[in-house]
Amino acid sequence: MAKPVFKSVLIKVSGEMLAGEMGQGVDNAVLARFAEEIHGVQKLGVMTSVIIGGGNIFRGLAGAAQGMDRASADYMGMLATMINALALQDALERRGCYTRVMSAITMNEVAEPYIRRRATRHLEKGRVVVFAAGTGNPYFTTDTEAALRAAEIHADVILKATKVDGVYDKDPHQHADAVRFDELTYLDVLSRNLRVMDATAISLCMDNSLPIIVFDLSVHGNIERVVCGEPIGNRVHRA
Question: Taking the model in full, what pTM does it have?
């Protein structure tokens, strides 16, 4: 069995990934496969945390673009991430994987409040921790949440799960001439305006020397391959 090269990882996945071919909502088959892969990483002894966006249910920016108050729209988006977090928790626990959902907004009936030391303790005990409700503040994305939480819990890396096998200069699904990068620095991502994560998240990662690996989640087993050091996807790091 391959051995992991990271002790602690934070997996960031967009809500749209959970929608699968449906385009919205939660595709149970996609959710089940994702949960199985996370459980596989957890069984390797890796401290595993997860953040899922809410775009499959509601996206704050889209609501604001249609005339909603931006803060209200963002809070709705945070609630959408909680729905996805609870769905993932259920899928993981049905596989015997102890899981805790921690929310940046107080929702005591369904999740624990986010407390950094408590989150760290859960991870040390071998539980998967799913962070939900963003940073608890409007105008910040789940990308920023991922960079912030990863820095707080001293994760070794952010694993950015996408629908493509790395970072391209433009969307390869829409442009046949899209060029894939081999390696990237944080400054490359910022200066080229590449859509790896938003600028605030990239800056946080750069300030904390926190690497990001961008990889294709649709290939079965890729999470474990990345955790075990296989050269999959792209790594964003310092020069």
Answer: 0.94
Beta-strand pair 8-13/157-162: parallel
Q: Where are the domains of the chain?
A: 8-237
Residues whose CB falls within 8 Å of the CB of residue 90, separated by 6 or more in sequence, listed in order: none
State which CATH number among 2.60.40.2550, 3.40.640.10, 3.40.50.1220, 3.40.1160.10 fits the domain covering 8-237: 3.40.1160.10
Phi, psi of 11 (to 5 degrees): -95, 125
Pairing mode, strands 47-52 and 128-132: parallel
pLDDT in tens, 45-66: 999 999 999 999 998 888 888 8
Q: What are the CA-CA distances from residue 220 to residues 117, 224, 226 (Å)? A: 33, 9, 12
| Separation CA 17–CA 140 (nearest Å) | 20
Q: Is 68 helix (H, G, I), strand (E, B) or coil?
A: coil
